[in-house]
Amino acid sequence: MSDNKIERHLYDVVVIGAGGAGLRAAIEARLAGKRTAIISKSLFGKAHTVMAEGGAAAAMGNANSRDNWMVHFRDTMRGGKFLNNFRMAELHAKEAPERIWELETYGALFDRTKDGKISQRNFGGHEYPRLAHVGDRTGLELIRTLQQKIVSLQQEDFAATGSYDSRIRVFQETTITELMLDGDRVAGAFGYYRETGEFLLFEAPAVVLATGGVGRSYKVTSNSWEYTGDGHALALRAGATLINMEFLQFHPTGMVWPPSVKGILVTESVRGDGGVLRNSDNKRFMFDYVPDVFRKQYAETEEEADRWYADPDNNRRPPELLPRDEVARAINSEVKAGRGSPAGGVFLDVSTRLPAEQIIRRLPSMHHQFKELADVDITKEPMEVGPTCHYVMGGVEVDPDTGAAFGRVQGLFAAGEVSGGMHGSNRLGGNSLSDLLVFGKRAGEHASAYVDTLQVRPRPAKVDVAAAVEVALAPLVRAAASSTGSSADSSTGSSADSSTGSSADSSAAPSADSSAGSSTASSAASSAGSLIAENPYTLQQDLQAVMGDLVGIIRREGELTDALKRLHELRARVANVGATGGRRYNPGWHLALDLRNMLVVSECTARAALEREESRGGHTREDFPAMNPTWRRINLVCSLSFGEVHLEHKPVPAMRAELLALFERSELSKYLTDEELAEVEEQ
Ligand SMILES: Cc1cc2nc3c(=O)[nH]c(=O)nc-3n(C[C@H](O)[C@H](O)[C@H](O)COP(=O)(O)OP(=O)(O)OC[C@H]3O[C@@H](n4cnc5c(N)ncnc54)[C@H](O)[C@@H]3O)c2cc1C
User: Fold this and answer.
1) Which end of the chain has fewer CB within 10 Å, C or N?
2) Exactly one of 167, 251, 278, 573 is catalytic; which is it?
């Protein structure tokens, strides 16, 4: 394909991702006077952020005046089991309230307390009610508000320049497949319009990754189709590093029935608002699962737990509000012990705890979701719930203050779920929405400042653009070759390319679903050198089976070793993935391109999970069931070199003395090594 068929754009800052982190970064870049592009794989407005239900954690002290940034910082570090990047946790706790109030200046309308302040609700692991919310549709309000701010900036630009898009433009349904480099500097990004399959090249000296999570590598997940770890993989391929990819959050409460909706999230607000978990013996089992590190803060009897809702100052919290990793493991154990619900989960009951009208008012989406999808009326009967892959704590290793990616690449920034460090080994509910705002703003600001330091703009090399085109077209070329029996060389590449613009689905090739036959057959065929291309859907299922079965909520050495072997086998098959049809809206082709991202990110997760010989937060090793203070000092960092994932140990930055002083020694002794404790005592 010649370059002139590629739509070219020139920007200062390109933001990949239009969730909360991306939009907040883009607003900041535009406010800094930078020409800014926002790119979104899905429709504008349809990101995970919009699905966030419970709220955004910020220590505003509206519901309990004892709350402040120090308490929030402590809770976040405890939730992450002290593996958090302390500086990120500190910035987050200090700046979250300001970011929430700022949203109100953009037009957000949060639920109010009786005296007119922003209302704050309880959530797992937060000592005080801290989540600013709008019913159980907080993310919708957040995205609506940020989009409204962007529209208002575009209106200003129209008044000044006659064009709405002159300084900030949204490219929706556009997937970025490759970052462009000029030496070690970011020079832009390459991708395609999902609808037409046409290519785009963004030339820009700074890129902010805000692509969210990786959940689609698991079958049971709350994540939607876009979350294939693209930003993580783009960063790796550009020379940046990923940190602590073994830590995945399995949210304790996903729907388990009917099968078609398995994994869809049941918000933690249900438990925050009084919902309790019971097993098939009708026992409120969470009291049996309070770990030592949390024993002082959690109630020991149902009576005390129930009193806490009305009098939190004089009672301890219900154990249903333990951090998510603890609750997910507890549910897993109950089901394994044969005390699960009929559909393989446990019961979550709010119907016996709150009057129906309160449930409908406080949890309208949950009421609707269960009625529509499972024909369950949650005001009258319990829900059936079980763990679902929800959030990745690991991500792009970044400088905490600026969001600049570590590694050898310059001009790359990351914010939101795609970045790592902030949440340590386990994220507290509500801390993501505030993370997006705090670090989205910082990434936008520092990406803009970086652009100002450049004397010469980096330029993408023609050869790299051509390579990106070739990689993007390869699945189509392969499928075309396997259907005609010809070899998938570059001449076929140009023939696939020349079909661009013609109606895509006119191809006589078999449909994506029927072409692969059984995965074993096609895999065998491919290893025998045959031309049969692999079916992307089959490959995704096989990848999901490896990750779900062998790198799931409870992990073991033998299974992780097996997972790595199978991922290695999948590599060869993914390299042979084909997609029938043309470039016009072709989901099989899109998935074929996503698969290489899913695979490399999954390999990072499996490698790090095998390496970390302890259990902490979102990483549970059956063969190493305890937290190990020596491992707390270690970050596992992945990089990519000549297509191979490398893993190295890096020390966790030591917390500043005044932050350590916020914790009692008895608490620190649960996390730190003796050597570290001795140092603390000397200070
Ligand atoms: C159902 C659900 C409920 C949740 N509830 C809460 C809650 O109550 N409180 C809380 O704090 N957190 C919650 N979370 C987590 C939180 O919503 C996410 O972690 C957060 O929204 C991530 O925001 P983000 O800006 O990093 O990315 P996202 O909002 O996930 O946006 C990612 C963006 O990147 C785009 N993208 C991805 N790949 C590409 C590519 N290759 N090219 C171009 N664009 C790309 C996507 O299209 C999307 O626009 C919830 C998550 C889910 C799934």
Assistant:
1) C
2) 251
Long-range pairs, 523-528, Cβ under 8 A, ≥24 = 523/569, 523/573, 526/572, 526/573, 526/576, 527/572
Domain 252-389 has CATH 3.90.700.10: yes
Signed CA dihedral, 14, 16, 19, 20: sign only: negative
Kind of pairing between the strands at 7-10 and 199-203: parallel
Instruction: Look up 72 and say whether it is catalytic.
Output: no
Q: What is the ipTM of this complex?
A: 0.99
Best substitution site from 38, 211, 253, 365 to test ligand 1's pocket, by max atoms within 8 Å of Cβ?
A: 211
- The count of C-alpha atoms lying within 13 angstroms of the C-alpha of 84, restricted to the half-sphere facing its C-beta, is 26
User: Topology of 465-631 in CATH?
Assistant: Methane Monooxygenase Hydroxylase; Chain G, domain 1 (1.20.58)
* pLDDT at residue 175, as a whole number: 98
SS3 at position 653: coil
| Residue 631 CA neighbour count, 13 Å, CB half | 21
Q: Report CA dihedral (284, 290, 296, 300) to the nearest 10 degrees.
A: 20
What is the rounded CA–CA span in Å between residue 163 and residue 149? 17
Indicate if ligand 1 lies below 6 Å from the C-beta of 416. yes
Instruction: Render pLDDT for 583-625 as a digit per residue (tens, 0 to 9).
Output: 999 999 999 999 999 999 999 999 999 999 999 999 999 999 9
